[in-house]
Amino acid sequence: MSSNTPSSSAGGVGSADSAAPRRNSKRPKYSKFTQQELPACKPILTPRWVISAFMLVSIVFIPIGVVSLFASRDVVEIVDRYETACVPENFRNDKVSFIQSPSTNKSCTRRLTVPKRMKQPIYVYYQLDNFYQNHRRYVKSRSDSQLKDNSSWDDISSCKPEDDANGLPIVPCGLIAWSLFNDTYNFSLNNQQLVVNKRGISWKSDRDSKFGSDVFPRNFQNGSLIGGKSLDPTVRLSEQEDLIVWMRTAALPTFRKLYGKIERDLQPNEVIHVTLENNYNTYSFNGKKRLVLSTTSWLGGKNDFLGIAYLTVGGLCFFLALSFTVVYLVKPRRLGDPSYLSWNRNPGGH
Amino acid sequence: MEAEGQIEEFKEEKLSVKGFNFVDERITNGNWINEPRADVIQKFLRLLATCHTAIPEVDEETGSISYEAESPDEAAFVVAARQLGFEFYERTQASILLYEFDPVSGKKVERSYNLLNILDFSSSRKRMSVIVRDKEGKLLLLCKGADSVMFERLAKHGQEFAEQTKEHIAEYADAGLRTLVVAYREIDEEEYVEFNEQFTEAKNRVSADREERMREVAGHIERDLILLGATAVEDKLQNGVPECIDKLAQAGIKIWVLTGDKMETAINIGFACSLLRQGMKQIVINSETPENNALEKSGDKSASAVAFKASVLQQIAEGKQLLSSSTENSEAVALIVDGKSLIYALEDDVRDVFLELAIGCASVICCRSSPKQKALVTRLVKTKTGSTTLAIGDGANDVGMLQEADIGVGISGVEGMQAVMSSDIAIAQFRFLERLLLVHGHWCYRRISSMICYFFYKNIAFGFTIFFYEIYASFSGQAIYNDWFLSLYNVFFTSLPVIALGVFDQDVSSRLCLKFPLLYQEGIQNVLFSWIRILAWSFNGVLSATIIFFFCIRAMQHQAFRKGGEVAGLEVLGTTMYTCVVWVVNCQMALSISYFTYIQHLFIWGGIVCWYIFLIAYGAMDPDISTTAYHVFIEACAPAGSYWLVTLLVLIASLLPYFAYSGIQMQFFPLYHQMIQWIRSDGHSDDPEYCRMVRQRSLRPTTVGFTARFEAKSKRSKERGRDH
């Protein structure tokens, strides 16, 4: 750095301007804001703060973790993977042709044993694996205005490649609707039909605001390629709850969708017979299919992760608090040690 | 002993009387008459009042007297004499009129002196004298001059205070004061007549040796003087310059003086601002050697240039030798170069050697340098050492240097506005540089580096969640967040806290910044913006993103996420994750800043609140506008316990690594500013012992500045004590 001190000739009586009282001052008006002197809290991480923060976290987190874990453990879940089992032995090598052939018998029976008492409502889900409902082209391929309002039934610009069939717009258009899941499940318990309630499985806001009550399916699944389920053209879209559920795209390639609710309790060791129609083609992309029956807790379905994570973080904080305390007691901070300063570690680095 | 009475010291700070700032209870207010040797003091002051060439000017309205003098020093003497009771009020052709304080009567009496001769000051004589006849008819020769010429002219019996005076002069010179020795002599009538004849004859000559002859005659009578004392005048630097330079030196900043002044003045200034001190070895590279002068007179330009260069090279080589020998003894060395030598020193083949020498020296003073040379020296330092250079100057001749340096600071003042207009930063006085660098420089450095690091952090933390999601969306480009969430991230939810950080953050208060100048080294060493630090912050961002993403997708897997059995779709997962990001990024900010005013609180917590408000407002809009965010908070997320639990979990888990790291660092490996924070929080900021401990963390001892001077002095006296 170089500097130039003011010349020395300014000595003596010649210039003492700085000494004279400054009347014509340009000093700006004092304010705490502009002078950056606002009252401030200046926290630093003293051992007390660090230890108490860790302790606080562990005190809060461990109970939450325990409660969450219990909530998750309370949930009873029956998962049945059926995509291979429901293909007859002779088609096992060529599942795709089995599922694509219109003539094969797709019916299949599964037996599910209830491990524990399941309180109603019991939610029925289907679970797909390796199904990229979150692929950008797939997600984009829908027409919200068309779903909402009958007057824009021909607004299919965003629906490619499933925008029209035989020259007419499809309602509902787009890949999502086209690929609607079409396996069906029938449950029976002790030869008695278990009623599956398919009402109220979708978000209310979707039914009310996104799917119009004056919109009816039109020209749907009429193209050369049939994607999935057909829709009853006499039922308004706002009541096609399977479609509404399906149209809320999943975030991850493994996802569940609500199929319906069984509104009665199931007792332990009861055996549920499921007659399912295995229609949906997941075989061409090695997708798996599962049928899931699950109760819920206040926290939702069965997932231990939240509880375990809370316990882990809480435990870790507890451990950190302890070790900090120990280290603090064994080796208190010394102020006089300059050796950590970086410019003392490498004296050449200037 | 009464040496006190002999030393006058005029300082020019905070002066109520222009040119006078001297307080000594023993002298002022007429107290000097009570001193044991009041007669000497009286003579001393009388000499000051008479031995000069100043002309009094009486202000007609107020009756106050001001003085017009050849040099400010002289004016200072007259003013001082007036303040101490010897008021010089009129000069006529042949006399000097004073109001004198009479110690006998205790009143002011008028007194006139017949002025017989004035033996002028010249740079070769280094002294001036007057010959006066006082009322009693005594002939007096009053003389003041540089110590180098005065002591040899003292009479044997006039050396009563010589030893002490020498000591004092050394002390004052060390402090940067300009010293003069004051002495007098009574002359016999005959001697005077003889002198006057010779002097008049010499004066009336018209030949070339007139000056020489006059000098000779004057020198003849200025002998056998009786020492009265010494004066010391403070060269008026701007207020606070030495303090400022001292602080800057303590901060580890190397200071070079590039001035157009002549060498003596430059050295004087160097002493005044403690860049030089007694006992510091001076390497002077000077072109004014006798051989060079002779060569120049001979008119052979090329030959003299070659000789010049050779002599400069030789002087540099000698300097380096001296330097290497004194580094072993850890002595400070100063380098003084004049402009003519600088021409050769800055030539392509010499400048590396020159720079090497200059860097080794504690202070470097380039005098008689042209504006272009100033710029060249600055460039040399800037490009060859890679250091950041700051140039400060107030004159038009500093413009080149200001523009060449990395940072140019202009002082607006008497010398016009050119410097200010070509500078990056303008200040009104040199001493403001201290605050500019040590306080605002440090703050700015910290703010900008934390701000940039934090920007990296928050965008990496955000961006990586999007990137991670792509792994699960077969890299199709589907974003997990709603489009407007993406757009507004850097606009509303996380922008204001970082601006508040960049504008308001203070790790250490300005008072402590000034108290611990070494803090500035954090900037010079680039501690806060090293690659390690940038990468560490980026890594922290990746870590946060990883925790946010994987915790969210694991916690909100395919299972129902609330009591109603609904599963989390793209919009619910996206909203949850985004909530986590906003919380984490804002709370990370809250953890990393050390200065919370209501503004910080407002911005940080406001950013989070803003997100929820936005979510509700946006979700309440028509689904055509809000698309996937429609009612997502009110209907889906807010009633779900898992949404809130995931937010809390992810928030704490993401902050945990940073919190643990900074807790450990603060406790066991504190950086310099953190040490100062400790001092503050322990309440030791006013405990000198503690402060000393922290302040002495310098890489190398400070070599210039008055603190260093005091240390060197106490070391010297200690050594002296040991020798005896």
Query: Which sheet architecture does the biggest sheet of chain A show?
Result: 5 strands, antiparallel
**What overall form of chain B do the CA principal axes indicate?**
elongated
Series of secondary-structure elements of chain A, N-terminal to C-terminal: EHEHEEHHEEHEEEHHEEEHH
Unreliable stretches of chain B (pLDDT < 50, length at least 5) are 1-15
**Which chains have the largest interface?**
A-B, 99 and 146 residues
Pfam families (chain B): Cation_ATPase, PhoLip_ATPase_C
Family (chain B): Belongs to the cation transport ATPase (P-type) (TC 3.A.3) family. Type IV subfamily.
Binding site for ATP (chain B): 74, 121, 144, 178, 259-261, 368, 374, 397-398
EC number (chain B): 7.6.2.1
Molecular structure report:
- The complex is a heterodimer of chains A (350) and B (724).
- With 350 residues, chain A is α+β, with helices and mostly antiparallel strands.
- Chain A is built from nine helices and twelve strands.
- In chain A, the strands form three sheets. Chain A has a five-stranded antiparallel sheet. A four-stranded antiparallel sheet of chain A has the order 3-11-7-8, with no helix packed on it.
- In chain A, a hairpin with a 2-residue loop joins strand 5 (164-165) and strand 6.
- In chain A, helix 1 packs antiparallel against helix 8 (305-330).
- Chain A is extended.
- Chain B has 724 residues and is of the alpha/beta class.
- Chain B has an eight-stranded mixed sheet with strand order 1-10-9-8-7-6-5-4.
- In chain B, helix 15 links the parallel strand 16 (407-411) and strand 17.
- In chain B, helix 22 runs antiparallel to helix 23.
- Chain B has three domains: 2-234, Calcium-transporting ATPase, cytoplasmic domain N (3-Layer(aba) Sandwich); 241-432, HAD superfamily/HAD-like (Rossmann fold, 3-Layer(aba) Sandwich), CATH 3.40.50.1000; 436-703, no CATH class.
- The interface between A and B is large, with 99 and 146 residues.
- Chain B: Its main location: membrane.
- Chain B: It is a multi-pass membrane protein.
